[in-house]
Amino acid sequence: MNILIFQNYPCEDAATVGEALEALGHRLKVVDCFGGTPAPAFSEGDAVVVLGGPMNVYEEDKYPFLKWETEWIRDWTLSNRPLLGLCLGAQLLSKATGGRVTQNHTRELGHYEVELTEAGRKDPIFAGFPSRLPVVHWHQDTFTIPPEGILLARSELCENQALRVRQAVGLQFHLEIGQKKMADWMTEYIANPQETDIDIEGILNGFAQREQTYLKTCQKLVENFCRTIQ
């Protein structure tokens, strides 16, 4: 299959999601939204993965591509086509289909668990998953569940962690990154590490016990996603 990868910021690539897709024999086409690549035709892809980024979905004046991307995601999703949104990608899915994206009461940054809802435990995207799973977070905003949406996962600090709208699934959390990628993000996004309340060393060291689990979880989720397409 041909998989469109919507990349919203240079340092946030498909990482292990892309590797898992290629390992299954699929062809990836990166759409550099941030870099000015125009919106692709629907005929160019069988499915789409929408990645994360440091911007908020409501910053369309600062990042004009968000406008066409939101409209594209709406039309794609309402055409019953498969989509996987990660972090910002999940927020864009919610906004595109009638939900709202607002600031969460607290920032989630680091290693946490999410819990599948009853609907999540039955959903094919989480087939074979335990009811609780460790994930990586880096977000301040949160999304609401749109009118046609279904809540699939939640956490203690952020109620809405995963949603489904038709054939589209959005995950507020990350499974596609490891220690090196997180270190790159910290270098890119944290202006002065000496003046931050983020436990940089603790978060990076936390990958030692979890990185292989994240990798296996990511591979399993990608397999499930591709199986639903076929």
Indicate the mean pLDDT. Answer: 96
- What is the radius of gyration? 16 Å
**What is the overall shape?**
globular
What is the ordering of alpha helices and beta strands?
EHEEHEHEHEEEEHHH
Distance between the termini: 9 Å
The CATH homology group name: Class I glutamine amidotransferase (GATase) domain
- Give a quick account of the main beta sheet: strands, pairing sense, barrel closure: 9 strands, mixed
User: Mind telling me the CATH class?
Assistant: Alpha Beta
Helix content: 25-40%
Low-pLDDT parts are none
Biggest β-sheet: strands ordered side by side in the sheet: 2-1-3-4-9-8-7-5-6
Enter the CATH topology name.
Answer: Rossmann fold
Q: Note the total helix count.
A: 7
- Helix and strand content put the structural class at alpha/beta
Total strand count, please? Answer: 9
SSE blueprint and pairings:
Layout: E1 2-7, H1 15-23, E2 27-32, E3 47-50, H2 65-78, E4 83-86, H3 88-96, E5 101-116, H4 118-122, E6 132-143, E7 150-154, E8 162-165, E9 168-171, H5 179-189, H6 200-205, H7 207-229
Parallel strand pairs: 1-2, 1-3, 3-4, 4-9
Antiparallel strand pairs: 5-6, 5-7, 7-8, 8-9
Helix pairs in contact: 1-7, 2-3
